[in-house]
Amino acid sequence: xxxxxxSVVQEKVxxxxxxxxxxxxxxxxxxxxxxxxxxxxxxxxxxxxxxxDLLGIIRKYVEMFVGMIVRLVNVDRIRKPEQVLEATGRKQxxxxxxxxxxxxxxxxxxxxxxxxLDLSQRNGQISDDxxxxxxxxxxxxxADPYSLAAVNEADPSFADAHPNATHWKDANGKWCYAAFIVxxxxxxxxxxxxxFGWDDYWWFAGLAQSAGL
Length: 213
Prior knowledge:
Blueprint: E1 2-4, H1 15-31, H2 38-45, H3 48-63, E2 69-74, H4 81-86, E3 91-94, H5 96-99, E4 109-116, H6 128-137, E5 140-142, H7 145-154, H8 158-161, E6 164-169, E7 175-183, E8 186-193, E9 203-208
Parallel strand pairs: 3-8, 6-9
Antiparallel strand pairs: 1-2, 2-4, 4-9, 5-9, 6-7, 7-8
């Protein structure tokens, strides 16, 4: 298994990236030019708040990718769900019916991307439905539990500092989850069905929806 984490000292944005950001803005405005009267656009471009608003949007999207952790791991897709959990060597707190719904996923070697949310503006909580949107914003889909378990099998200590989880819907459209945690110095794995939401304790595991990530 290979580990990649963001550098402590981040390099500054490049001129090429700045040009790309400019190209993106230019392309959007040109695509929607019929929606913007020339006189109104001229006034908008002279508004003081425009610069700070645009900066805020760029910050919002860039900050979504700061502090991500990436793990490359080999996944055994042939195992039964119970065997996947047993292989992690963790104490199991599970609903067997939910374990049976665990998606197998695909791919022998996968790149699992972990991100942590700042929920200070959400009263410290986020629902599964809104969490799904956070995955989409990052160009990710929730990691299948086979891939997540493989990360924690290869590195049992990973969840000590990075309690991690993923979620999926069962055949009835109910949210289910797998979470790797440490309680009272005991390494455990939870697999249940619930819709209580999440707090800022967790690192969420995703897989890239495109080859760019």
